[in-house]
Predict the 3D structure of the following.
Amino acid sequence: MQNAYARTFPLLALALLAACGGGGGAASRSGAGADVPEAQRFGGTAVVSAIGEIPDVNPLTSSDQSGNNVQMFVLFTPVVAYNDRLEPVPALAKSWELNADSTELTFHLRGDVYWQDGVKTTAQDLKFAYDMAKDPKTAYPNSNFFTHYGTAEAPDSFTFKVRLTPHAEFMDPWRTFFAVPRHILQGTKPEEMKNHPFGTKAPVGNGPFRFVSHAQGQQWVFEANPRYPKELGGRPYLDRLVYRVIPEPATNLNELLSGNVDYYINPPAEQTPRIKSSAAARLETFPDRSFTIIAWNERRPFFKDARVRRALTMAINRQAIIDGVLYGYGTLAASTVPPFYWQYDPQAGADLKYDPEGAKRLLAQAGWTDRNGDGTIEDASGRPFRFTMKSNQGNQIRADIAVRAQSDLRKVGIDVQPQIVEWGTLLDQLQTPSRRDFDAVAIGWTTEFRIDDTDLFSCRKMGGPFQWVGYCDPQVDRMLDTLQTIPSRAAAKPVWEQYQRKIAADVPFTFIDFDQRREGVSNRLRNVHPDARGDLVGAAKWYITPEARRAH
């Protein structure tokens, strides 16, 4: 899942997230650890802000990271949830079982979850959503979730059965999959689902909060759902949750520090000193599933040779970018696997350290030298190594990365021209297969807990929206296919290591960092513990003490 600002059983759980907590000493200023009787926690409005609009909250069509957060933790009830140890726990499904040969998964749904309009959520709603997601004409953005899943049935109102072929991490898709109200959406053609008012004007959810209103480009408003089942947490403490769209980071920060915003999603790293020193707010941080990359379009002749892509990576001082641009809020990356995942191989990319002289030698081996003495290297035909690196408007971090890359690559004789492009336009240039109108781009990606890089790197996905760079290697295709079919982690681990080292060696992307995500939190907002599950995890249990509440 791309983002505009940097889309089971207990034995399948990932490593613990004990290190994912946040604000340290700063949190103590808010009294976050003080005991507040539960009866005093109900009431008040919390305001969340971010630079980007949520374009769509329909679970069948939305590909936006913030939209997915609202779906998971605010507006809908997922089939299963992950607890803070990343173990699956009941949500819409109160229990589940797998048959003896691992070919049928059965979910037993709760009978006390209601849509906002009062209609009970049933297995027929879940089957409707599943069938829609499986239909290619719907353009469900996470279609790879269900590559190894087959037909489904709802034999009664609270039982959902689905066929599958045995594969790895098979429960993970259900963490971020939701029933949708069949009584509202039935009759909608799959290809028209993305334009249904349900996504932007009249969403009807079944989660801890209910939809109130949406002003395009300004805000979304949600209110507490008084009928939410007690076993799932019951009525949220907050009366209302408001998501404000504030495009300018400086305005976001001022609104947080002045008390008009309670939760500022992922502030730029350069704002963190002011948040940490403020008496009004605190900084929460955690290791995230997002990473920042420079993607090289191998359809361009400059980037076809892996030696050149390795040289580009070695010529860019990525650690200096983390230290200077990100203020240290990141970890050096070499593949798509975050360091806190069980698959992670620390040896992948170990030989891609900052080495300008080594980069020059690789470039010379690939035929790029300064043939006319003008300081820019050329190929045998005399063509200079000159290209454009794009980033998206509103993201200063990526713009700064492009400028840093420009400076570093200049030292090895490469001429880079940074270019800032409006986000929607950039996505169209990247994701429209007939265009792919870019040389290089600084962009972000958020992986799922169940990693499947098929969309990014498979030869079969050349016509797909996320095969930006045109990378194709039969060995990688075999590994991508194999990794999804090995249920045992012990058996899969060596294949994962081989895969990561291959990606690091071929460098379809120059991986900059795995993000240390940041959240600016008002000191009046209590019980806030974000982690890699999402920005809004636990929002139903956020609260504001009576004396700190104010009208919005």
In short: The two ends are 33 Å apart (CA to CA). Residues 223 and 240 are 4 Å apart (CA to CA). Residues 2-33 have pLDDT under 50 and may be disordered. The longest helix spans residues 489-506.
